[in-house]
Amino acid sequence: MEADPPPPASALMEELVEEVLLRFPPVDPASLVRAALVCRRWRRIVTGPRFLRRYRNLHLHRGGSPSPPMLGFLASAGAGTRFVPTSTFRPAPLFGGWRALDARHGRALLRRDTGHDAPVDCELAVWDPATGRRTDLPRLPWSPHYPYSWNAAVLCSASTAAACDHLDCSGGGGGHFLVVVVGTNHEEIFAHVYSSETGTWSAPASARHPDDNVEFAPSALAGNALYFAFQTGAAALEFDLRTREMAVVRLPPPRFDWQRVVLAARDDGRLGLATAGKSTIYLWAREAQRPGDGNWVQTRAIELDTLLPAGAISAFPDVVSFVDGVGVVFVRTGDGLFTIDLKSLQVTKLSRDTAFSSIFPYISFHTPALEVASTGEGPSSGA
């Protein structure tokens, strides 16, 4: 039996080029753009759906992390939000006085005030930093009960059924999203859900008032629920994405009154949180998954004196954000903003500026768009 003839030399060369390009680091998306500009053949490889899928899968497994890389973060200060890059990625410009409320699955949730703080008075939009595409949401349904506190989150709509790996659900690659708004008024705690598939808000869900108010702090998606911190730091709101039911989850006893609590999803899928002491970061994990159960265990205590540069802790440290699934925590001190990699304990100083109210990491793979590849502004594809 005769053996099959060998493939043409050009096909072998194309396969070799693809294998090399696959190994370009995801934290340097500009390198893929430059490669796509070398010639038409390379552009066809880099912008092909097969390459994009292989690239994302390869780097998820090589990195040992269930999440894409952090390409930057959205920092809200004053009346606006700016994107601070931690890679070569640069987003399309964002104008118009928008402030970030959340970022997840390659999208950012934005708000623009209209003179009032209530969610029924604010303009809300979902923004894709990779493409610059902004989806303006309809106003929330009017309610006779004015909310005293509220927060919101954005996520891929397939998260409710665990049916998406989120590699292709943003950056113009299709896929619908949900926006969840929760808050308190003088009678109850409420929740609304917006679906991009229907273009409408759901009827409100409600539960008994928690005797606390929702904090404007990063939410966490753990399992099939979203979690929002309360202002006192003693509890969090659990919103079940499938049943749309709400419960109050008790948090570890605070070390001081009104401590800042940052919620996050751990690598194992459980809900976690981080708080700061005088010079220590404390990490916790939730053990039980019964609604409202607050069985917590402290997993680590990280001494900042031995990690941060000398003199960095000139003021009480503050945990301001946590990168879900990546294991990176943002810490603010009087000397600036730092990230700490929880696996390697590598510390990176990001900025001397500390005048911001919130930080939302932007986690995504960024690759050239199918239509055009450019090192400047233009269409692109993220996930």
TrEMBL record:
<feature type="domain" description="F-box">
    <location>
        <begin position="14"/>
        <end position="53"/>
    </location>
</feature>
<dbReference type="Pfam" id="PF23635">
    <property type="entry name" value="Beta-prop_AT5G49610-like"/>
</dbReference>
<dbReference type="InterPro" id="IPR036047">
    <property type="entry name" value="F-box-like_dom_sf"/>
</dbReference>
<protein>
    <recommendedName>
        <fullName>F-box domain-containing protein</fullName>
    </recommendedName>
</protein>
<dbReference type="Pfam" id="PF00646">
    <property type="entry name" value="F-box"/>
</dbReference>
<dbReference type="InterPro" id="IPR056594">
    <property type="entry name" value="AT5G49610-like_b-prop"/>
</dbReference>
<feature type="domain" description="F-box protein AT5G49610-like beta-propeller">
    <location>
        <begin position="102"/>
        <end position="368"/>
    </location>
</feature>
<dbReference type="InterPro" id="IPR011043">
    <property type="entry name" value="Gal_Oxase/kelch_b-propeller"/>
</dbReference>
<dbReference type="InterPro" id="IPR001810">
    <property type="entry name" value="F-box_dom"/>
</dbReference>
